[in-house]
Amino acid sequence: MRLYPHLLWLVAVLSMVIAATAMTASTASVVAKLEDCSVEAAGATTVTFTNLRNRPVSIFWVNPRCEEVFYQTLQPGSSYTQPTFVSQTWRMRDTQSAELLEEVLAASTGQSQTPGTTFQLYLPLVTQMTETPAPGRATVNRPDDVSGYQVHVMYVVPSDGADRQLDLDGSLANSVLSFQNWLAEQTGGTRLRFDTYQSTLDITFHRLSQTDAALAGYGAFVRDQVESSIHAAGFNEPNKLYAVYYDGTSNTACGGAAWPPALIGNAAVLYLQGLPNETVSCSDTQFASSPAAPPDYLEFSMLHEIFHTLGAAPTCAARHVLQGHVGDSSSDLMYSGPLPWYPSELDYGRDDYWGHNNPDCLDLSQSVFLDPLPANPILPPGWP
Predict the structure, then answer these.
(1) In terms of C-beta density within 10 A (0-12 exposed, 13-18 middle, 19 or more buried), how is residue 221 classed?
(2) Per-residue exposure over 44-61, b if at least 16 CB sit within 10 Å of its own CB, e if not
(3) CATH assignment, 8-126
(4) What is the pLDDT confidence band of residue 229, given thresholds at 50, 70 and 90?
(5) Which helix H or strand E contains 50, and what residues bound it?
(6) 313: cis peptide before it, omega within 30°?
(7) Rounded CA gap, 349 and 374, in Å?
(8) CB atoms within 10 A of CB 361
(9) With respect to CATH, is domain 150-311+362-371 assigned 2.20.25?
(10) Predicted TM-score (pTM) of this structure
(11) Which end of the chain has the least Cβ crowding within 10 Å, N or C?
(12) Number of CB atoms found within 10 A of residue 20's CB
């Protein structure tokens, strides 16, 4: 089942053009019909497509051999006029998922029309569908307890994914509180500021419109697609960083993040069903069983991705390696290298991304996302 915040429409407007001076009337109109191939061309016409959806749409001509020929990609809110002929077939597909949205055929009706008449056909592509929320579940961002910059947690599943209700059974809340407690131990009391509602961690559930396979097909760019999808659904507040637990697949990693200023973004994403290689599954470990339980792989992984999204580790860091990581100790939260990762320390040696003495290099101990707020808080690099 797909969940859409609004009714999405695509408008196909056919404007009839007289092709020969001997013709005084047009007899073309538009019908929607699936699995039509274009036939021998009749009179000339133009087709104007207007994309009123919130996602890109690709336009294809279907040739007489029933093969799709790509012509144009329409961004949301844009229009495109295509010269064509009566009896030619055009298809509209979702650019990201390749889902067939509609097929339009210019065909003869036998009704005489005045030259220049415009025919309009409004094509409802998706009927608005809603899921009945489970008791206690939030599908929107609820009112914040406090203002300011904060991290908002989301449980996100693909359109065909199983809903394990991790937002309701305590799994995500326990996990976040577990790594928050660890962070406070490392920093002497400083934590990340998380979005809460009535003093409880505010977790939003969202079902994407794309299938698990379609998203996995983006390879190393699954995070970008998840971020784009939640933005389109309205989850893009300027003061929020989104910690997304995506219950879907990635074939390249167990998580992904922005890394400003090289990659600006506000979503840190864990792939809970990730399969980065044939021997490692991201679902092999469990969430912390309680807020007091020590953090394990999933807790450290989410904190790792959040720190990337805040800008760690910067290229100016003393031990920076591999685009946003450090290489001095496999116990470091931001380590990447040839050794197995066993995180237990925040910035080993305190010389890379937390509490260092380099005034010209990003120091996350001054981040605007911390609680308590530092005296001179800083935004992630490149954030507006």
Answers:
(1) middle
(2) bbbbebbbbbbbebbbbb
(3) 2.60.40.780
(4) very high
(5) strand 44-51
(6) yes
(7) 21
(8) 17
(9) no
(10) 0.68
(11) C
(12) 8
Residue 34: DSSP 8-state: T
The pair of three-digit structure tokens given for residue 219, joined into one six-digit string:
């390879």
356/116 Cα distance (integer angstroms) = 72
3-class SS of residue 183: helix
Domain ranges of the chain: 8-126, 150-311+362-371
| One-letter amino acid of 11 | V
Alpha carbon dihedral 147, 150, 153, 154, in 10-degree steps, equals: 80
Quote the longest CA-to-CA distance of the chain. Answer: 87
Number of helical H runs and strand E runs in the chain: 4, 20
Please name the helix (run of DSSP H) or strand (run of DSSP E) that holds residue 14, with its range, or none.
strand 8-16
Six-digit token pair at 222? 């699954």
Q: 199-224 pLDDT, tens per residue? A: 999 999 999 999 999 999 999 999 99
Nearest to 253 by CA among 209, 326, 304: 304
**104 strand-pairing partners:** 32, 90
Angle, alpha carbons 315-321-327 (nearest 5°): 125
- Residue 312: its pLDDT value, please? 96
At residue 236's C-alpha, the angle toward residues 362 and 316, to 5°, is 15
Phi-psi region of 180 (alpha: psi -120 to 50; beta: other; left: phi over 0): alpha
Work out whether strand 79-85 and strand 89-94 pair parallel, antiparallel, or are unpaired: unpaired
